[in-house]
Amino acid sequence: MTPQTQQHNLILTKAQIEQKIIRMAYEIFERNFEEQELVLAGIHENGYTLASMLASQLASISPIKVQLLHVHLNKATPLDAPVSLGPDDTGITNKAVVLVDDVLNTGKTLAYALRSFLELNPKKVEIATLIDRHHPLYPVAATYTGYSLATTLKDHVEVALTHEETSAYLH
Questions:
Q1: In this predicted model, what pLDDT tens digit does every residue of 84-93 receive, in sequence order?
Q2: Which of 6, 27, 48, 146 is the most exposed place for a label (fewest CB within 10 A)?
Q3: CATH architecture classification, 17-151
Q4: CA distance 15 to 21
Q5: CB 71 within 8 A of CB 113
Q6: Alpha-carbon distance 6 to 23, whole Å?
Q7: Pick from 109, 114, 116: which is nearest to 133 by CA?
Q8: Is residue 83 a contact partner of residue 111, using CB atoms and an 8 Å limit?
Q9: pLDDT for 49-74, tens place per residue?
C-alpha cells in the first residue's frame, strides 16, 4: 500500500453506535438516578452531537432533566484561546456533569476542558466517550465508554455522527 492510499476499516456501524449510546445512557442513569438534573457537556463538534444523542436516550428512559452544554476549545493548542461554554444560562454549580467527547486518545482535550468546569463548582464531573483508545498522557479516564479499542499511536479514529452517516473508522 502506498502512503497516498489510506486504509479505512469500519469499526462501528450505525446500529452498533446506536446500541452503544443506549447502553451508555442506561449506565449514566444508573449512576445518577438520584439526581434531579444532569448536565451533558459535549465537546464541539462530535462530542456535542454524541451528548445530544445521549440526552434523547436519557429522556426516554429516565425522569432526570437533562441540560445540554456546548464546549468549545482549540484541540490542537488549547492554551491559545479560553474554553467557552454555552448557552450562558446553563448553571452547573452543585450539579452532576457528564463531559462528552467522541474519542478519548491521550486525554489532552478532556483535561483542558475539565479545568473550566472545576472553576464552576459542579457536584461531580464524569466523562463519557464513544471510543476509548487507551493512550493516556493526561490523568483522564472515561467513566462511560461505548467501545474500547487498542490502537497504535499512528492510527487515527474517525467518527461520523451526521444525518448522512453514523459510523466509526480506523485509519
A1: 999 986 789 9
A2: 6
A3: 3-Layer(aba) Sandwich (3.40)
A4: 10
A5: yes
A6: 32
A7: 109
A8: no
A9: 999 999 999 999 999 999 999 999 99
- Other C-beta atoms within 10 Å of 131: how many? 24
The contacts of residue 100 (CB under 8 Å, 6+ apart) are 40, 41, 42, 43, 47, 48, 50, 51, 54, 127, 128, 129
pTM of the entire structure?
0.92
Tell me the pLDDT tens digit for each residue of 124-155: 999 999 999 988 899 999 999 999 998 888 88
Task: State how far the Cα of 87 lies from the Cα of 121, in Å rounded to an integer.
Answer: 17
pLDDT at 20: 98
Question: In 78-137, at which residue ranges do the beta strands (DSSP E only) sit?
Answer: 84-86, 96-104, 124-132
Distance CA 99, CA 137 (A): 18
